[in-house]
Write a structure and sequence with these properties.
By secondary structure, this protein is α+β, with helices and mostly antiparallel strands. It has 2 domains: about 100 residues, DNA-binding pseudobarrel domain (At1g16640 B3 domain); about 150 residues, DNA-binding pseudobarrel domain (At1g16640 B3 domain). Helix content is about 15%, strand content about 35%. Strands 9, 10, 11, 12, 13, 14, 15, 16 and 17 form a 9-stranded mixed sheet that branches. Strands 1, 2, 3, 4, 5, 6, 7 and 8 form an 8-stranded mixed sheet that branches. The longest helix has 11 residues. It starts with 10 loop residues before the first strand and ends in a 5-residue tail after the last strand.
């Protein structure tokens, strides 16, 4: 007899940190295809052979992937607006294919322990133990700007930007917004689109400036897949008492003709707003 699971249609979800960084809601239309509720724990399998155990939480008519979901997102390097396609292969087992900004399948995974490694030196405090944080980036007002475009972009930021970026920075400077989502990474991820839009090549050594004037050294690391991370971020998060869902605007400033050598961090929702 043919496995009934094969008749169940796939479903897809776009990844948006504000909705699905902590947990992901399963579409009700998919749940309606099942003979019963999802089990309390399911397996998510990547095409490269890795798998993740994820707890399922039921709330009224909805089901959520919860405990273990953040690890799946982090280790699969899921970014804002990536598309995830879930195929129900057998009871409690999903095969997941992830499509990136290029519209092609993303095949890479982070190795266990790879995300979050990195040391930092806080220049005003010798106690620089890591406080692990993970950040999810949002595409907020990152388009390359010319002088003629400045006024248009400022109006756009004022009308559409929930973070109210123009309150904190000079909109002529490159910037991106990062959101603290989970306590598991001491590195800051720099969205590739920011580097492309502004035609930037970050120096190997950078300096974080927080709102109180404290500074931290950071080291830029570029992976083989061209993803860019900066160490030193975890200490800044700890010393500023950042919490999950706090937003930070990272403004890339020029020093000695090099843009990005200084990263001025504006905290939105932390204790330094």
């Amino acid at each position: 007899m043919e496995n009934a699971c094969r008749k169940i249609p796939d479903f897809f979800k776009p990844y948006r940190p504000e909705y699905s960084s902590q947990r992901m809601r399963v579409p009700r239309a998919f749940l309606a295809q099942l003979d019963g509720p999802l089990p309390g724990e399911i397996l998510l399998r990547h095409r490269m052979g890795r798998q993740w155990h994820v707890k399922v939480t039921l709330e009224a008519q909805d089901a959520y992937f919860e405990d273990g979901w953040q690890e799946f997102v982090r280790e699969n390097l899921v970014e804002t607006n990536d598309y995830m396609v879930f195929s129900y292969q057998s009871p409690g087992v999903f095969r997941v294919v992830i499509y990136g900004h290029s519209a092609c399948e993303k095949k890479e995974c982070a190795l266990p322990g790879e995300v979050g490694e990195g040391s930092e030196v806080q220049e005003h405090d010798s106690d620089d133990d890591d406080e692990d944080y993970n950040e999810e980036e949002e595409d907020e007002g990152r388009s390359k700007r010319s002088k003629k475009e400045g006024n248009v972009e400022e109006r756009k930021a004022a009308n559409e930007d929930p973070t109210n970026v123009k309150r904190y920075i000079d909109l002529k400077n490159p910037y991106f917004v990062t959101v603290v989502q989970a306590l598991r990474s001491s590195c800051l991820y720099v969205p590739r689109s920011v580097l492309i839009d502004y035609e930037l090549k970050l120096p190997q050594a950078v300096l974080f400036h927080d709102p109180t004037g404290r500074t931290w050294r950071g080291t830029v690391k570029v992976w083989t897949d061209r993803r860019t991370w900066i160490t030193g971020w975890g200490a800044l998060c700890r010393h500023n008492n950042l919490k999950i869902n706090d937003r930070c605007i990272c403004e890339l400033l020029e020093e000695n003709g090099v843009t990005g050598r200084i990263i001025k961090v504006h905290i939105v929702g932390g204790n330094s707003t």
